[in-house]
Each structure stands twice: as structure tokens, then as C-alpha cells.
Protein: NUDIX hydrolase
Amino acid sequence: MTDSREVPLVTGPRRMALLSFIDAGELPECARFEDTPTGYVLIVLWHEGRVLMVYERERECWELPGGGIEPQESPRAAAVRELREETGQRVTEDELRFVGHTRTAIGAAQRVLGGAVFTAEAREPRPFTANDEVSAVHWRTGAEPLPGGGLVQTVDEYIVELCRQAPSH
Structure:
């Protein structure tokens, strides 16, 4: 549960709230948190100044690719796997750049989860094939409307802007 006095950095649809973002320069990738273990990853994948967004079927929302970390899997390995499973895009662990740690409150119960955010450049994007989780992808330039409309996860848009301002982007 979140502390009712904690003010989120940004809130989004589907009862999501970004509680904190700790830049990689402040806290290394290997940092672990007892109160909020790292349970998910997000990937900000760039190509020619555009970022890849996915339309997640169940949540009916445009968001960044990513997902849960399996037992015995590192966040970096989970990022590579999730990106491939959801979008067909392929990067290696070495191509990922760690950007920072997140704390996010999710759902009606406001369960708090920790996340790891990575970014990479897609040199030659692969074609997308819809799957059980993701029905569409879009390379987004900014805040333009996405194809077919639908909700956009504003928490993820906030994270994209943090990555856009990062030194290597």
C-alpha cells in the first residue's frame, strides 16, 4: 500500500501512479530495495527519434513494452525477453542502457512495485506480428494521437520524457 501522504510524480489510467524515479546516476542498476523489490522492467526503445509504444490488449492502453521479471532472471534479461515477446524487436543485454529505478502504485489496492527502466536504439526495426498480449505497436514522435485512439499510459509518457532528457538521448 502507498503512504497516503506520498504525492505521485504523475498518475495515469488504470489506477497507476509513479511514486518515484531514481536516476541511474544516483543509484546503480545492481541496487536492491527491501521494501519494494524490483518486479518489472520497462524498455524505452528509440528509432530515429521516435519511441516504440505498444497497445496492451487486456488494459486497452498504449504503453511502453515491458513486464514482469521471472524467478532467477535479471532485470536486464527480462527486458530483452519482454521486448522480443511483445514486439518482435531484438536487442542484446549489452545494447541496453540502464536509466533508473521506479516505484509504482498499481490498481485499486495501490500495490507498490519496483521497476527497472532501460533504453536502447533499434537500428533496423523488425516487422510486428500481433500476439496474445499486444495488438499493435507505433513508433511515436511525441504526444500525437495514436492510431485507433485509446488510452495512453501517462506514467509511461513521463518516463519517456525523462529518458529523452538523459545525457545520451
